[in-house]
Amino acid sequence: MSTHSERLRTWAGTLADITGALALLDWDRDTMMPSSAADARGQQIATLAVLHHRELMRPEFGEIVAARAADPDAAPSARREAQLLAHRRERAERVSEALVRELSEAASEALAVWTDARERGDWDSLRGPLGRLVALKRHEAQAISGGHDLYDALLDEHEPGAHAAELAPIFTELAERLSPLVASGTAQPPPTLPQRDWPRAAQLQLAHDVAALIGFDLTAGRIGESAHPFSSSSGLGDVRFATRIDERNPISNVLSVLHEAGHAMYEQGFDPDYARTMLWDAPSLSAHEAQARFWENHVGGALEFWRIIEPRMRELFPAAMRGLDAGDFHAATATVCPSLVRVEADEVTYNLHIVLRFELEQALITGALDVRDLPEAWNARMDELLGVVPDSPADGVMQDVHWADGLFGYFPTYTLGNLYAAQLAATADVALGGLSAAIADGGFADILGFMRTRIHRHGALYPTAELMERATGVPLGADMLIAHLERRTRASASTRGTD
Amino acid sequence: MSTHSERLRTWAGTLADITGALALLDWDRDTMMPSSAADARGQQIATLAVLHHRELMRPEFGEIVAARAADPDAAPSARREAQLLAHRRERAERVSEALVRELSEAASEALAVWTDARERGDWDSLRGPLGRLVALKRHEAQAISGGHDLYDALLDEHEPGAHAAELAPIFTELAERLSPLVASGTAQPPPTLPQRDWPRAAQLQLAHDVAALIGFDLTAGRIGESAHPFSSSSGLGDVRFATRIDERNPISNVLSVLHEAGHAMYEQGFDPDYARTMLWDAPSLSAHEAQARFWENHVGGALEFWRIIEPRMRELFPAAMRGLDAGDFHAATATVCPSLVRVEADEVTYNLHIVLRFELEQALITGALDVRDLPEAWNARMDELLGVVPDSPADGVMQDVHWADGLFGYFPTYTLGNLYAAQLAATADVALGGLSAAIADGGFADILGFMRTRIHRHGALYPTAELMERATGVPLGADMLIAHLERRTRASASTRGTD
Predict the structure, then answer these.
(1) From A45, B176, B359, B433, which residue has the greatest number of CB atoms within 10 Å?
(2) Which helix (H) or strand (E) is B470 found in, with range?
(3) What residues contact residue B119 under an 8 Å CB cut-off, 6+ apart?
(4) Beta carbons of B68 and B89 less than 8 angstroms apart
(5) Degrees to nearest 5, angle at CA A35 with A30 and A40
(6) Nearest CA to CA, how far is B58 from chain A (Å)?
């Protein structure tokens, strides 16, 4: 007869294995799979989701988990894992296997339609599948919420313990404090690079070089290509990310690599003892996003970073780099100007894109907004928040994959990640004796070491707020992000002045 | 209340989804995964194997399946699927979940050790893991056999209904009739191509071109690279294969493509209505192998084939092709000469490599041979059968992945595939008015059409012997293969004569 601890270990391992297999099925779908296999892959993902649900709900673990979660004598890591398992069970037991399958299949269908219809802005094709998916997500929210806020029931999956009512004032404050920065922007698009060729193969090499430079372990990971950059971890020793390559411009590739390698290095930094446990994870998406944003915005936003990689870019792109230097790339990333597409937005207006989505997805889930009316609502709010309106749904309501993938309550974690990233950067700045100086010295091992020690190794041991307060000494707030963005906009203005 | 038919459909679909996910996990492991993830992937594969076993054993389906399998009024395809499910259940119910996991983990461990140790011929590292795996396979065979032949219990997984006692005389006859052909061979290695560079990127392009030429649907498949060529199907619309690229020689790539595309086109040709059923499969490995061997040996062995692709090779390899033509490639594939490595063996001696493995793996599973004594037994029998003895286990007992991957009872299906391929080729020769002429005309669509109609579309609807007799009109026998090999050796002699 094995002990409760051993049985829990085996059980959590089984759950982790299914999750890891699902991560691989997703990775492959988005980087390699022929589109003709969308239906078959959707069925496979739905089946594994159902098996995960069934495994999570195995009745014999109910009491064991509850006892361990409440046991003051259990090791903190064991108790925390039991609490996480209990919470997952509590959510799962309110959702039927049939709904798990329907949700997964509906998301696969909407995702496949979106993938096909997005570029031509074909909203009419997406409306039906997205409407069915939203209806199912509302069913799920109703089942989980127990009479409480519907949106919170979905938000909790991505940001455990968060409440929309607590996030709303943070977002409102942020939007108010950002508006002078938006107003002080040039309202001109960033200076464009001359139209030149940045060949795909050399850009892929650059992706590997930049990732290795900042500390991504290529012997325990892979870099792929995808229209939509993402990172993916199927288990210990295998963390991957996909970058986006535009042969007319290398900047989105470099920033994608910083962002996704930020996610991926986080996963590579979990305590290996946590492998195949619930602790081998970030405590929430905002914690994950904070790592990505730190590398993308606080490292990639530094002129010193572009100076470090400039020589390598000159080797890889001898023709395209003629007459260009680090300052040109830095200037192209530092301009503040309202624009239509979130993933191309500057750091200041980016958060207004999130405010828009946070509002609209709450309205969809509560039922205040019908999917049919979504494009109009999108365009109207874009006009109010950013003063720009898309010509096509491709640059409007259809630009993001999230909703078509069934991800509601996900977007706010991006801005929470920006807030935490700024607090981490400010802390690192003190701890390292100047973050810019560390970057200028190529001290990426020190920067990564700071994150490893304060954040990565802990995995999901602490809830996000506790993890971040242990790391930075301060509670969540907007001051550090505002200060960072003020510096960025000043730097942008000064770069423009000397250009 | 859903009908029995609907419940069976859902259940078989779930089983197919898990199998498809496992295929993808294997594909990724062998083409892309960092080796640091071997343990994690092994756990994931073991977990999915256990979940498949558990799903297969769900008690509520026992009576439904048995009733359907015996129902004379059921549609033939429904009855056949029920029979296949009943047979799989019957095997599975004799094996515990714990043994399923142990077997899967032991195979993952031995495979990882083999991958690392093979090239340096490090038998000492492999001996332990392989010994544990063989012991577990013997446990499995004992559990399944019910007192009957232990080896047959494993053979049945790959070649349902086959018995070693029935295969042995076929193999003995074949070995006897091959010996004059071996004796008439040059006993000289094939004429080598001049040492030139055949760049990887151009070879990968050639792989795509050759695959497309013979009818592999690249919009519903992928081609990857691996040290060990293989094909893999994760479901409808997604069939893949990996080729091996040697930058010193393009021949192994071309023959690998013909072989693996042969497997892959078979899977692309199953009746789509069979997707997510037990019928979306070959009835056995020998049927599968027959397709691969047909394209590799009966198409790739034709001078006309090399003439068809010669112009494209000249475009892709302008330097390396200087002074070479189709005859040189054909000659390099047609020589008969005993050699050490199965996958590099000529068509005649190849079958003697299989005889060796068929004998040794029977001895391992029955317990007549201990894994410790395997290298000596290998070398002694190589000397008897082929007159050559390897210097290193790398070219001897460690050359194949199969045993380290837990595959026992698999090797004989290669020679059975050769026998069936020759019978199919002889039938196609009549049906198409000359196979060589069809190849010379580039009539690959007609050749594929013949296979689609006679073999592919049926999936697993008929047992292998019935499928083949319907397709060729004759029972399994060695005559056609011997006749083919006699023509090949004559062609080889004549090519040498004019060279």
Answers:
(1) A45
(2) helix B464-472
(3) B394
(4) no
(5) 95
(6) 13
On whether the CB atoms of residues B422 and B480 are closer than 8 A, the answer is yes
B37 CB-side CA count, 13 A: 31
Q: Which amino acid appears at position B193 of this protein?
A: L
CA distance A152 to A408: 10
User: Which letter does DSSP use for residue B461 in this model?
Assistant: S
Closest chain A residue to the Cα of B17, Cα to Cα: A44
Give the whole-angstrom CA distance, residue A284 versus residue A466. Answer: 12
Nearest-by-Cβ selection for B235 from A24, A41, A46: A41
Enumerate the β-bridge partners of residue B147: none
CB B336 within 8 A of CB B489: yes
Give residue-wise pLDDT tens across range A160-174. Answer: 999 999 999 999 999
pTM (2 decimals)? 0.94
Q: Are B111 and B401 in contact (CB under 8 A)?
A: yes
Query: Do A141 and A153 touch, CB atoms closer than 8 A?
Result: yes
pLDDT at B200 over 60: yes
DSSP β-ladder status, A238-243 and B221-225? unpaired
B47–A276: do the CB atoms touch at under 8 Å? no
Give me A303's structure tokens: 């002129």
pLDDT digits (tens, 9 = 90+) for A367-382: 999 999 999 999 999 9
Name all domains of chain A by residue range, CATH numbers in brackets. 4-158 (no CATH), 166-498 (1.10.1370.30)
Q: What is the pLDDT of residue B360?
A: 98
Q: Which residue has the tokens 């404050």?
A: A173
Question: Residue A496 phi/psi, 5° resolution?
Answer: -60, -40
CA distance A409 to A159: 8
How is residue B324 annotated by DSSP? Answer: -
The catalytic residue positions of B are 260
Nearest in space to B206 (alpha carbons), one of B217, B198, B195: B198
The strand pairing partners of A53, in sequence order, are: none
Answer whether A18 sits within 8 Å of B47, measured CB to CB. Answer: yes
Phi first, then psi, for residue A195 (nearest 5°) are: -70, 105
Residue B274: how many other CB atoms lie within 10 Å: 20
Q: In what order do the strands lie in the sheet with A221-225?
A: A221-225, A238-243, A230-235
User: The tokens of B331 are what?
Assistant: 């000659």
For A222, A265, A281, A318, B370, the CA distances from A261, given in Å and listed in that order, are: 10, 6, 16, 26, 49
